Amino acid sequence: MSFFDKYFFGYLPKKTKDIVRLICLLVLLFLIFEIAITFIFIVFVIGILSRILMYFFK
Description:
- The protein is mainly α.
- 88% of the residues lie in helices and 0% in strands.
């Protein structure tokens, strides 16, 4: 974390540092949430497709 404190947040005032960190954290959490939802959806679709294909080709 010292790299970010020194080079990314080092020249900003304390209040601005907190706001920038909060925005970065919210963006990161949003991206993780979107990736997780997409992964669950893809696994669900692959499961349904495999059941359908197994029904037709059994």
